Amino acid sequence: MQNIESPPQERAASADFYIFTSYLWESHGNLQQAMQNGNHYYLPYHRDRLISSAQAFKWADIVTFLRGATGLERLSSVVEEHLETVCDAELVKVVMKIKVCIYKDNYFHVESAAMTPTNYMKTFPLPADLSEATSLIRRCIVKLDVESTNASLFTSHKTSERSHYDRARRTAEIVYEPPTTVEVLLFNPQTEIMECSLSTPYFMRNGQWVTPPLSSGGNAGVTRRLALERGLCEEQVVLVDSLQHEEVIWISNGVRGFLPATLRLESSV
After folding, report:
1. What is the side-by-side strand order in the sheet with 257-264?
2. Domain 130-268, CATH homologous superfamily name and number
3. What are the domain boundaries of the chain?
């Protein structure tokens, strides 16, 4: 029997449905200093993403709350109120992942987790040129999903409805691994690459780094926007048939920054 999904607006009407964005927060000094000078990485971009999602799901009150300079201050205050409850008053330096969740009834929920530093990755790497990838150590493996994913509001926006990503990660046997070590690449029924489960991908095509257009069904991520604005890449449809085993690519997201990776096609192993 064919599995017929309920319409997006119906699923979005669920009480436990939310839109969200995740980003990096870095502080120096004690808690009071951190509240004044803490670095919310690209918060205006994350605010814009939340507005776009709220508009897509017709949450007018959320759009109004977040708009303009006042809206950005409100969002920052929501996060800082949370941080005051979870951070040590004498903290010296902390790097945290911040997840801002917004529900349709105007309820905001913030989650945070300390980022574990590594000896090989700086905080939020942002290359000046993606061609650096060939000279960098690549610790991340990207696999190709085994079946297509239908494009929808839930692939175009970051929401709690992640069954398509969860399925892809289970199939690739990477349920609990972070995107710094392994990822899975999703594609639509037209065999166009959409995105990775937690990241935006970038490919070298005809001498130019490219990322899939939003028309392929992927998410309008913050780091994707950064890459396009800084001229690091262009938009271009990327087909599954164009992928090569052991191809060097980049992936990025709003918490980890930009990471070089190696594409691993199972059929080629």
Report:
1. 193-196, 182-187, 140-144, 257-264, 248-253, 200-205, 208-211, 234-235
2. D-amino Acid Aminotransferase, subunit A, domain 2 (3.20.10.10)
3. 8-114, 130-268
List Cα–Cα distances, 268 to 132, 141, 245, in angstroms.
Answer: 25, 14, 6
pLDDT at position 87 is 80
DSSP helix, strand, coil percent of the chain (3-state; round to 5): 35, 30, 40
The 10s digit of each residue's pLDDT in 14-24 is: 889 999 999 99
CB 249 within 8 A of CB 263: yes
15 three-class SS = coil
Calculate ∠ Cα 200-126-161, nearest 5°: 30
Does the CA dihedral 117-123-127-128 come out positive or negative?
A: negative
How does DSSP classify residue 160?
S
pLDDT tens sequence across 145-199: 999 999 999 999 999 999 999 999 999 999 888 778 999 999 999 999 999 999 9
